[in-house]
Write a structure and sequence with these properties.
Elements lengths: L2 H15 L12 H10 L19 E3 L2 E3 L12 H4 L3 H12 L3 E3 L7 H5 L5 E5 L5 H13 L4 E5 L6 E3 L2 E4 L7 H10 L4 E6 L2 H9 L4 E4 L25 H25 L1
Parallel strand pairs: 3-4, 4-5, 5-8, 8-9
Antiparallel strand pairs: 1-2, 6-7
Bound molecules: flavin mononucleotide.
Flavin mononucleotide binds next to loops.
C-alpha cells in the first residue's frame, strides 16, 4: 500500500467513527491557515555533488537513540479509532522505524504494554486544574518506565476545535509550579508548547531538559504565530551545565589552537 492510500484509508476509518476529534483548528482557524502559508516559504536546498552515499540519520537525544530523528507529535485520541489496536500498531511501527512514540490525552491505560514493545516512549500530562490529579498522573506515567515526561504548558486555558471546548479542566502553570514539577520528575522533562523567548527561558530556568516549540497544531489559542523560525533561546543555564559549557568552550579553543599550531 502506498503512503497516500494509507492516509486515505485512515481518514475514511476516522470519519466513519464520528469521534469528533478530526482535525480542525481553534475558532477562526487562522493558525492552521497561517501554518500552511509559512511552511510554503521553506524548500530544500540541494547539494548533489559530493552528497552522502550512505547517510546516517542516527542521533541520541536525552538518552534515547533514534535512527529516524522524527519525533511523533503527542497524540492519543483519535489513534485507537483508526485501527482496532491503534496505539500498539503505532508503537510497533515507530519501533521498526527507530523513532520515539509520544502519547497525549487521554493518557493510555496500557503505557506499560506499549513500552514492552521496546519502542522509546514519552508521555504527556496536562496541567489539570486539580493539581493533585496532575501529580498523580506524573507519578503513574513514571512507574511505567517511559523515557521522557512531557508537560503541556500550553494547555493551561484548555483546548478547542472551532468553538467547541475539547479540554476545560486545566489551569495555567506558574514558574514556581514548573520548578515543583521538576522536583517530582526523575526522567528527562520536556515542556511542550513554548512559543516565546520568555517561556523558553523560564522553562529551562525551571530545570527542563528540553522544550517543544509548538502552537499545538491550532488547538489552543487563536492567532498564535507559527513556530518557524524557532524562538531564539537566551537560556541561563543551571550552574553545572554552565560549568560544562565553559569546559567545552575551553576545549574548543584548545583544539583550534593546536590545529593552527600543527598546520603552521
Ligand atoms: C488529533 C490531535 C490530538 C492531539 N492531542 C494532543 C494531546 O493530547 N496532547 C498534546 O500535547 N498535543 C496534542 N495534539 C497536538 C500535537 O501534539 C502537535 O502539537 C500538533 O499536531 C502540531 O504539531 P507540532 O507541535 O509539531 O507543531 C494533538 C493534535 C491532534 C491533531
Amino acid at each position: 500500500m502506498e503512503l497516500r492510500e494509507i492516509y486515505e484509508k485512515g481518514k475514511k476509518a476516522l470519519l466513519a467513527k464520528k469521534s469528533g476529534i478530526f482535525l480542525g483548528g481553534v475558532e477562526t482557524e487562522f493558525v492552521l491557515a497561517n501554518n500552511r502559508k509559512i511552511m510554503e516559504h521553506y524548500t530544500l536546498r540541494q547539494r548533489a555533488i559530493d552528497s552522502a552515499s550512505e547517510p546516517s540519520t542516527e542521533v541520541e537525544i536525552l538518552g534515547v537513540n533514534l535512527r529516524t530523528p522524527v519525533i511523533m507529535s503527542a497524540i492519543t485520541a483519535p489513534i485507537p479509532d483508526i485501527t482496532h489496536n491503534g496505539l500498539m500498531d503505532v508503537a510497533r511501527g515507530l519501533k521498526e522505524a527507530g523513532s520515539i512514540m509520544w502519547t497525549g490525552s487521554p493518557i493510555p491505560a496500557n503505557l506499560k504494554e506499549i513500552k514492552m514493545t521496546g519502542v522509546p516512549l514519552a508521555a504527556n500530562v496536562k496541567p489539570y486544574a486539580d493539581r493533585n490529579k496532575m501529580y498523580r498522573a506524573l507519578d503513574d506515567i513514571q512507574k511505567t518506565g517511559i523515557d521522557w515526561v512531557g508537560v503541556e504548558i500550553d494547555s493551561g486555558q484548555g483546548t478547542k476545535i472551532l468553538d467547541r471546548e475539547m479540554v476545560s479542566d486545566c489551569a495555567p502553570l506558574s514558574f514556581s509550579e514548573l520548578k515543583d514539577i521538576r522536583k517530582a520528575v526523575a526522567r528527562p522533562l520536556i515542556f511542550k508548547g513554548v512559543l516565546s523567548e520568555e517561556d523558553a527561558a523560564k522553562a529551562f530556568d525551571a530545570g527542563a531538559d528540553g522544550i517543544i516549540i509548538s502552537n499545538h497544531g491550532a488547538h489552543t489559542i487563536d492567532y498564535l504565530h507559527q513556530p518557524i523560525p524557532p524562538v531564539t533561546v537566551a537560556v541561563s543555564y543551571p550552574p553545572f551545565h554552565r560549568f560544562l559549557a565553559v569546559v567545552e568552550l575551553v576545549l574548543f579553543y584548545v583544539k583550534i589552537f593546536t590545529s593552527i599550531y600543527f598546520i603552521n
